[in-house]
Design goal:
The complex is a heterodimer of chains A (about 120) and B (about 180). Chain A contains 3 helices and 9 strands; from the N terminus they run E-E-E-H-E-E-E-E-E-H-E-H. Chain A is an alpha+beta fold. The radius of gyration of chain A is 13 Å and the shape is globular. Chain B has 9 helices and 2 strands. The longest helix of chain B has 24 residues. The two termini of chain B are about 10 Å apart. The relative contact order of chain B is 0.16. The chains are: A alpha+beta (about 120), B mainly alpha (about 180).
Chain lengths: ~120, ~180
């Protein structure tokens, strides 16, 4: 199971990458995609919308089940990966390349509230 | 959620052809342990086309929301008496819509189901197209437009209802649901 140590992780199986400009890029982890199975649908948030910390930011869905994707902090959605609408299964093949949305935080992104690679690996066992 | 068992012989996964294995892996994460897929796998090309059509109809981007497609599917399954399909798609509606009020309504009385005018129109149209497809007409379509559905959403709804006419018949005629207490 891939768990890059350059990323931060949420207990709800999102990965978060802090960019140089302070924005956050969010996707779902290798473990998350593996639990869902081949994805058939990805719903992304609306660009320009403001999400509260922990709020639903989208949905990833397989034939087996659906799972919400959450906003790690409060902020404005500044971009979404539109390509996933037609190729949701791309997440299965490259979960850390296929980001879902980018967020400009309006509050401090406190990494201590999330998991590093080692802690995430321990959580998923 | 319910399980389902076939009345007829399913593929023995250890004896399956390369193409049968391939189409099972393409169809569903649990296909290799599911009676439904293991039975349909006797005709791998039909299963392949079924799965492609199902995914295109139920998950295509744009058009009707995922939750509303699940609502239409759930209503059709309820009307056709396919307990397994109704159960599966009720759960998915609940996951997507994050509420189960419409689910309860569909199970209690599909003819009055819907939490607002739009859901009621979707439910009624799904019933009409299932029970009396020859009676659906321009007025039926207009009733959907009157509550805000656009033409792409209407097409998605008709496709959803139509593919569950097929799915329900497969489920109802090839096997039976297994209730948790019976397992």
């Amino acid at each position: 199971m891939l768990i890059p140590d350059t990323l931060t992780y949420a207990e709800t199986h999102e990965w978060i990458r802090q960019e140089d400009d302070g924005t956050l890029t969010v996707g779902i982890t290798d473990f998350g995609q593996d639990q869902l199975g081949p994805l058939v649908y990805v719903q992304t948030p609306t660009v320009g919308s403001v999400l509260q910390r922990g709020a639903d930011a989208g949905v990833v869905e397989s034939n087996k089940t659906a799972s919400d994707v959450h906003a790690p902090v409060t902020g404005e959605v500044i971009a979404v990966n539109d390509e996933l609408a037609n190729t949701p299964e791309a997440i299965n093949g490259a979960p850390y390349e296929q980001w879902i949305f980018r967020l400009r935080p309006t509050e401090v992104f406190d990494e201590s509230q999330f998991l590093d690679a080692a802690a995430y690996a321990k959580m998923i066992g | 959620m319910l399980d389902w068992q076939a009345w007829l012989d399913v593929i023995d996964i250890n004896q399956a052809s390369e193409d049968q294995i391939k189409v099972l892996e393409e169809s569903h994460p649990k296909a290799k342990t599911s009676d439904y897929y293991l039975f349909l796998g006797h005709q791998p090309e039909i299963l392949r086309q079924r799965s492609a059509a199902f995914n295109a109809i139920m998950y295509a981007p744009g058009g009707m929301s995922r939750a509303e497609r699940e609502l239409g599917s759930m209503v059709v399954s309820r009307i056709n008496g396919c307990v397994y399909c109704a159960s599966v798609h009720a759960q998915r509606f609940e996951q997507l819509a994050k509420r189960n009020d419409a689910v309860q309504q569909v199970f209690d009385d599909p003819y009055t189901a819907g939490t607002d005018a739009r859901e009621k129109a979707i439910s009624q149209f799904s019933i009409d197209l299932t029970k009396n497809p020859n009676d659906v007409n321009a007025a039926s379509i207009q009733a959907l437009k009157d509550v805000g559905l656009n033409e792409q959403e209407i097409l998605d709804l008709i496709h959803s209802v139509a593919i569950f006419a097929w799915a329900n018949r497969l489920m109802l005629n090839l096997g039976e649901p297994v209730f948790p207490a019976a397992q």
